[in-house]
Design goal:
Length: 198
């Protein structure tokens, strides 16, 4: 069972549909008690870092997420959900939970069209639970900020948009993708299958 955290922000329906399509089971969770009882969580997110953090804190969910992470529950952050796993963001002033050491920064190249929207080639940098091989993959992106891990060993994939940036991370049981696997057809199906089968 995959539990998808509902805190008022995120493509919950699309994620559920993708999981169902590949034969998995999921449910929507929105209370600390449900989160603490989960074995696998997905933290979705669209919008701004500060808005999302305020919603998580006001819903009393952030502490439950941190406790779950510390006890070994798998957590997969998607898009803004991945950024929320980090310590802070240039997008706002809120502090993140710091489940992965690092920060979220804005694209600095003024010649780039921001937000970055569309399909990009993704290059796995090492074997991971989300990528079972190092072959090139394609995923759908839509974002204006990207993460920067303090520990490069936490980076499992990069992509290029003006610069080479980190687009997928893994730190023990904490996982994240800047791209949207739920919008990425066969590549997203394969990633979700890997997550389900952990």
């Amino acid at each position: 069972m995959i539990d998808i955290i509902d805190y008022g922000i995120g493509n919950i329906g699309s994620i559920q549909n993708m999981i169902k399509f590949i034969g998995g089971n999921s449910r929507i969770v929105s209370t600390p008690e449900e989160i603490l009882s989960s074995n696998k969580l997905i933290l979705p997110g669209v919008g701004s870092f500060d808005t999302a953090m305020i919603k998580l804190v006001n819903s009393n969910l952030i502490d439950a997420i941190k406790i779950s992470a510390n006890k070994g529950t798998y957590i997969l952050g998607i898009c803004l959900g991945m950024q929320l796993l980090f310590e802070n963001s240039e997008e706002g002033n809120s502090q993140g939970p710091g489940l992965i050491n690092g920060k979220v920064i804005k694209f600095k190249d003024n010649s780039l069209r921001i937000p970055h929207v569309g399909w990009n080639k993704v290059n796995p940098t090492r074997n991971s639970v989300l990528f079972k091989d190092n072959t090139e993959k394609k995923f759908y992106f839509t974002h204006s900020y990207h993460v920067e891990c303090n520990n490069k060993e936490n980076v499992i994939a990069t992509t290029n948009y003006g610069i080479e940036f980190q687009c997928a991370v893994e730190c023990e049981n904490i996982l994240g993708t800047q791209f949207h696997p739920e919008k990425s057809h066969k590549y997203g199906m394969n990633l979700f299958s890997n997550y389900i089968n952990l």
